[in-house]
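Standup notes
- DV: blocked on the single-chain target, sequence here:
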Amino acid sequence: MARDADYGAFTEKFVLKPSSSAQELPLSGLTFAVKDIFDMDGHVTGFGHPDWARTHSAATSTAPAVLAVLRGGAICVGKTVMDEMAYCINGENKHYGTPTNPCAPDRVPGGSSSGSAVAVGAKLVDFSLGTDTGGSVRVPASYCSILGFRPSYNAISTAGVIPLAQSFDTVGWFARDPLILKRVGCVLLGQPDIPPVQPSEIIIAEDCFRLSSIPNDRLSEVLVKSVKKLFGGESNYLYHSVAVQAQRQNLEFRHYKASNALKAHYIFLKWTE
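- DV (later): unblocked, structure below
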């Protein structure tokens, strides 16, 4: 298929159907794509780099996260482009080309799970799997105007996923439809489909809104009204400033992330010098 037709989202295309065709499975009838960081039996995990793909053998097993959605009834249609070795947030890849952002073709799609986000945003699949270490699901979801979810660390097994920074790597997923996002989440997290819970407290990081060109009070007003519409007015709203603390934690995170990545891939990086 021509690049324009698939927005450059895929590195490899195939059709992998679930082992069971039972119609009552939670993800029956849905299609999905997988970031090329997940092992899939019989396929080389490319990790966004042709040298990595060339020097590694095909996987002999499939990552548990991929198996979970396959067993849930979904059909896999391919593996997607990602930033080189997952170490970027822009979604660009000079080896395979940068996937085209379907909602803003002249802008980057965000990364490192760029192809997975683009495949969903371009309506090529119903949902997709990605990973998030420092924003690699959340950023491309926002850039491509879709939904992306990063659960808590270690909530989903990262076995069969090439590590970037093992202390932070997390499996996440994308969808356009919030109901599909929820269905996929129930399968991946092993949770029953339960009604939403009424929050007792809602924390609003009021200083974050000052970064916008829109007046802070207007943004806060719109947010609170929207939350009250969703959850009712019984929740306790707490306003906090988080910027100073977040800046310190971000600096610490970047050091730990780089250290983890170096430990994981030092031999390969040394070889490619």
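- Follow-up: The mean pLDDT is 89.
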